[in-house]
Amino acid sequence: MADLRLEREFAVAPEALFAWVSDGAKLLQWWGPEGLHVPADQHDLDFTRLGPWFSVMVNGEGQRYKVSGQVTHVKPPQSVGFTWGWHDDDDRRGAESHVMFIVEPCAKGARLILDHRELGDDEMSLRHEEGWTSSLRKLAAELA
Asked: What's the family (predicted)?
């Protein structure tokens, strides 16, 4: 199984960064790669509580990409964990992987560690790395 780990530092307090990776209203502002958006009625992004979540990302041509899972742990302001599974065109959920956002204090302010495990193979890991890297650029722009 391939795993992915990305780290970014931001000039904000750890509590503020944790809000950006857990609160649905803030998540919507950066969730999904550049060029994709999540319509207001096409998500249940709330990583402040345990339980199910989902989002539908839509690109400029109207193509839809649904992903869902379960929030497995919430430990403010340090970490949130959730399962992740893409849906196919018939809304069948595929293989499940696990994501954790870890927030740590650092000299700049706060460090975000994105840990995405059990991605299957190296190709799947690379595709997720591209997607998460793009999403994190959106987060960095929001926090600039």
From this structure: Belongs to the AHA1 family.
